Amino acid sequence: MNLRTKLAALSLLTLLLPWSAWKLLQELEGFLRDSQQQTLLASARALASAIPMEYSSRLLFLPERYVPVWELQNPPALDGYFDDWPGQGQGREFVTEDEKLSMRLLAGNHGGQLFMVFDVTDLAMDDPAASQPAIGRPRDRIILRTRSPRGMFSFTISPEAPGPLQLSSDREPPGQIEGFWLDRENGYRVELALPSSVRNTDISFEVQSAFSNFGQPGWISLEAGWPGMSRWLNRSGVESARSWLVDRNAWVLADSLESKRGDPGNSARGTTWLQRLLYRMVAGNISAKPETWPENPVQLDGDTVSRSLEGEEVISWTQDLDTAMVWNTVAVPVDLQGEVRGAVIVQSTSDGLLLATNRALGRLLLTTLGIAIGLAAGLWFFATRLSRRVRKLSGAVSQAMQDNDEPDTLPLKDDRDELGELARNNQKLLRAVADYNKYLETLASKLSHELKTPLAITRSSLDNLASRDLDAGSRQFLERAQQGVDRQFAIVRAMSEASRLEASISVAEWETIDLGQFVTRCVEAYRNIHQGRVLRTEIQEGGMPVRCAPDLLAQALDKLVDNAVSLSGQDDEITVGLGFTETHCELFVRNTGTRLPEAFQEQLFDSLVSLRDKPGKTPHLGLGLYIVRLIAEVHDGTVTAANLAGDEGVELRISIPV
Amino acid sequence: MAAGVDMARHIAIVEDEAAIRHNYEDALRRYGYQVSGYADRHSALAALQRRLPDLVIIDVGLGDEVEGGFELCRELRSLSRSLPIIFLTARDSDLDVISGLRLGADDYLTKDISLQHLVARVVALFRRVEALSGGAREEQLLERGSLKFSVERMEVSWKDQPVPLTVTEFWLIHSLIRHPGHVRTRQQLMDDANVLVDDQTITSHIKRIRRKFVKVDPDFDRLDTVYGAGYRWKPDPE
Questions:
Q1: Which end of chain A is less enclosed by CB atoms within 10 A, N or C?
Q2: Helices (H) and strands (E) in chain A — how many of each?
Q3: A184-197, pLDDT tens digit by residue?
């Protein structure tokens, strides 16, 4: 894992910041929600307990059976359709015992007229018997009776065909009503307009069909809506919430919105998917199944209301997944004389996210998120830069070490931070290494210089001694001593060879020569010197003339061949070769019979490094290959040593750019 | 071996290392020379100003003076233009300075030389001096085209211009021109010139010789390097 990845991983920690802000937001949202619902609950309780006397007594004495009558805004068209009725056809249901015949009854009031809709569903119509010819069987009919201070009327509704109706009372007093008969699948619908006020009017009806009968033996009172109560609810309730008063059967008696109809209220605004997503992430899913009520409900169904009618205080949150609208509904039972007589429902609607209405909080969220992203980007940038600088420095140092050379300047050397210090220390270190290398390189020549004088003393003393008359025994010792001194001089000369070479490099003569001929002639000479050894040449034809210092190259080749000769056995082969690549020409010397130790290959061409394991006749200081390296470097070339594939031997190769 | 003249030749040795000085003195005395030894530049200069010797052997490094020998050489040259001077050095780097003969040295030896070689050089140098001053004896003259080579006087000229060679260089050329066109290996050259040095030193000598000839004649190309083998003197084209 590199530095940049590590820092990038570390920068992920800054994501904790928006995460914690997120958590905070959720908490705040929860808190806001809680306080809203507490407000609603308190308001609902207050409403429930403070219902004005007039209405509470009406609620108390509400007849067991009644049909609610709605105050209609406009007179409905007599056409058998519900679209001009509130609550989309919510009405009181009446069902026969076998459930084959059922009826829904709606009643409404407008301008002193009573409107009613009988919506009859006759499942028996599907019976095969129904398709029998209807000879003699009674037709579908509804018998409606009304009782009011004006008298009792009775109407039989049984038209010959669907369509508009004109009905007259069956008996005295005479009365007339209008209506409309609409046939529909599995039943029919009759819409009527009666010239009768709602107050003090009771009705009863009978529904007859081919197979079953539907009778309503007693009178059912009509109960008009309580506009006063609606106004009171509107006045006393929470400003932004809508409240209802419902009876024991969840029929709406009063609706705060009714008193301010036309007010657009809280309608769902269009929300984007992003807002919805954000909302869901903050608030979580409250309830996937919203209790939807029509815009002007006549009966509030659902769990919330039914539970409250059992005497419970109920709080519910529902949500529209598509619009992110949220309803907070609170239902509180209305307890009169120890019995639940109804319930007060308070509902507030809001845009999904309460927080969204709070700009400061939204901005906090955005700011923390922005800061975190900025911080992460900054850290990443810093890490990238740091890692690039470290790589640059490390590359320069390793390059300098490879070149075995003191670098002029390392990158970052002038930087003021720790990396700059590291660069400076590295430079010191490299300089020390370079100095040490230089010291090693000059050590030999310095030593040889220092050793020459004492050796000269020894040799001249021995020479003087030799001119004396000595007995045979002494002369033998003298000769041994002289041999020893000769060998020491040989060593000293070898030691100073490198420094002499450096001197001769400066005066070397450069020529452009055919290296092929050059190698051939050299190898001929080597064959004379190393008689009895197998020396091959391997010269690539067609090489270009190369500009070089032939004296020096010959010297390098001498060293390589000497090296190969002394390292290999009498029967091993030595190959001297020349090859060309596109950019380089390469001189190589191969010999069989030896291998280089793997460990020291790179140091092989350094001063005073000898890898020979067995001591030879002539002293070996490890300067020969160092000289080869110097000569290769004079030609801007390199020298490499490698073991040949298999166990074929060793190859040393001088590579010179053309 | 005596010097062969009435008065023994006088050799001065300036060498700060007492043991070496005494050894050289002893050896040269044994060959019949009169020898005085000096340990530093000042005592040597004081004594030699009074009476010039016939030959001076000077060590380049004299005590604390790393190049005191060169200084002394300059001072002696100002006293006498013809005084034969041999340099003795332990350092390889001095050789180039001396060989340029800017200092007017007649030959130079490294300290690893044996006493026999030292005496041989001294004898050779005296012979050259004798030939130059005497001139009575008949010269043995070798001619190789434009090269004139006087063994007696140890003088070489190319296209009638003298080439100032040291004794060592003289013998190397002598070895080469005796068999024009033949390659002389470094070992053969060493034997002929009576020097015991390594191949590299021979290479340097040959280079210096070539430079000296080129100085006289920029088109000089007779000294041929045979890589891996040695050197040869290219005979004249015709």
A1: N
A2: 13, 24
A3: 887 888 888 887 76
